[in-house]
Amino acid sequence: MSAPERIPPRSVTALDLLTKGELTVRGRVREASNAVLFCSVSYEGETASCVYKPVAGERPLWDFPDGTLAQREVAAYEISQALGWTLVPPTVLRDGPYGQGMVQLWIEADPSAALLALVEEEEPGDGWKAVGFADVGEGRTALLVHADDERLRRLAVLDAVINNGDRKGGHLLPTADGVLYAIDHGVTFNVDDKLRTLLWGWAGEPLAPEALEALTALAPALADGGPLVTRLAELLTAAEVDSVRARVAALIASGRHPVPSGEWPAIPWPPV
Q1: pLDDT, tens digit, for every residue of 210-227?
Q2: pTM over cut 0.85
Q3: Is the distance from CB of 153 to CB of 208 less than 8 angstroms?
């Protein structure tokens, strides 16, 4: 798979490129559970790399309606933008070589940026938050930790809003210039509590002031008739949109990061 090409300049926005550009399939991300195609997209002389996930390549899930994962990925992008954090790469829903699907700008991650670790100690070191103990084989356990990083903390809040049922380490894409992106948001927005994540380090702690400010600004944007709700209604069911409102209201009311419900596995496995 060739290296991703540059993000388009301001003369052609990423959304324009992804929405209007010509998609050319270059390869397949084979480790993915659903069909994930690596593509180039070209528009008005600009080219970038992207990921295309056709609806036709989605595997059925028992707890999500068939053929809805692509829409959920786009809805996660819309909520990320509405919160003002730009945590999800530009993402659109469009037709492609294999039918309608999600198309998302490819992000090149910095492999040297450590956000997760397994440590032998009983407690996390400075700058780290504990998630829990993990079996590492041969009767041994290690403490799973994540960085005490404001970018991850924002992502933990986003995941709580969208009810992310599968936040794994491989979904975190820190870039060389210090930006954190997160991908793979198909298993989101369920009306039942499905929050399953590696980012439990702040569970029960007070939300950061910036998070409360962002959530407080998001709440009125979720009112009926507004552009955000109109867009979400194209991607989710009415009950799912109502659940987003309820989760935002609950976070504002509690002022704290959520804790595992105990009714659903709290940590995805495998964690990567």
Answers
A1: 999 999 999 999 999 899
A2: yes
A3: yes
